[in-house]
Amino acid sequence: MRFGKNAMSEDINFISYRPKTILNTHKHPDHWFWSKYTAHAYTGCQHGCAFCYTREEKYSPYDSPDEFSHTIKVKENAPELLRKALSRKPVDLVFTCDYQPAERKFGISRQLLEVCRDLGFPVFVLERSPLVTRDLDLLCEINEKTPSVVAFSIISTPDSPNHKIAKRLENLAPVVETRFAAMRKIVDAGILTGACFMPILPGICDDNANLEAVIRWTAEHGGKFILAGGLTLADQQKDYFFRILQAEFPDLVEPYHCWYPAGSYAAVNYNWNRIAVHIRELCRDYGIKDRIPRPIIPGDKKAANKRVAECLADTSYDLEIHNQPQNQVWAYRKAAWAVEEFPTDIRLVYSAMGLKGLQGIRDIGDRIGAEIEALLDEMNS
User: Which of 108, 289, 297, 338 could form a disulfide with 41 if both were Cys (CB 3.0 to 4.6 A apart)?
Assistant: First the structure.
């Protein structure tokens, strides 16, 4: 197994190829990042974080998860594919990232941003690298016409008692101080920025000192939101992660077997919702959000639908972290999808038919219909 500092001396195998597609279109809009589309310049990542979910079989093209950080597939025709695909799509948010060291050599992530700028598509960029600031000019050009949003992946700060362990599990990712410095630079350019506190590693990054430190550092560097999520482990990625623990942190193996027994994807016997509620409370204390404010796309004819869908999705999340019944959580989630995907401006339905018209939309019942009515009245006031 190749992990940690020794990996820096090993050769990286770059494979350039020409995929047939680059753009993924979600069946439902993403209620975490608000993205409709995703596009990535590379497969594999030199940072090699031990917990990265993209080592899972459904995401990884490699026979071995060990190759994930040492064999980087470069999508050399990605920009032309993206331009062709987006030219046929309605304007909506594009999720992208990939500012790993390979980007210094190939520059494809920058070219993807150029396509989004040229075609007027908003972007959400999620990064562990300050290299994204190299393309601040493009992010600002996009932001002049339609939103650009940046988030930095952060799992611990130097204030955390387990920061050394977290750093080792992030492997070759740039140190967290440089990420926060980059956050401040992007904030100062007028771009909505925050932190994705993902994954919060049980027993490593979930202590109260680290939870508060990540939120405090984000707020102090101008970040406006924290998006928190737990660790997931499946198939070959799960085996890989446990091998890392056994080799590097054997004291953590037994508790992780308890939290992630055979067949589990998310942690069990672990109160994730308590963590999420505490993060919300800390965010309120520091004046930031625990959800990403949904970017408004100028001229979007369905902006009202998206704003209502945002409120319903936020309610679904609130119910979930407060341990409310799953049927209620899913009722709001499905209602958010239904409003988002409704083919016309929801205000026209309400104007013509009132509450009865709202309740006639798929997955909108009496209670949620009344809540949507209140939201529309507030928007119109």
Answer: 108
